User: Fold this.
Amino acid sequence: QVQLVESGGGLVQAGGSLRLSCTASGTIFSIDVMGWFRQAPGKQRELVATITSDLRTNYVDSMKGRFTISRDNAKNTIYLQMSTLKPEDTAVYYCYSQVARSSSSGYASYWGQGTQVTVSS
Assistant:
């Protein structure tokens, strides 16, 4: 089994900052892409940012400059530093990862349980 556990969500005022963390654990041989998605009430889940094992990053345009994704491969952990937060950033933020559980298996997708981020105006 593979588990992704997020932390760092909470309530923050508009203009503030939060740092989310996500750690993968369990039977892990290799991790490829990791990333963050978010889902606001009544909306579909959307991509925030991704990062590969060699630290190449990809961001949704609307979040470039405000959000920074980073990764610590030794700890199987990714981070999302969010700054200049807006009320429209309010959502449940989900961690995503593509994990191979052995040298002979392919990569499978895993999701965390999500962490709530609420930005008040």
Notes: The mean pLDDT is 96.
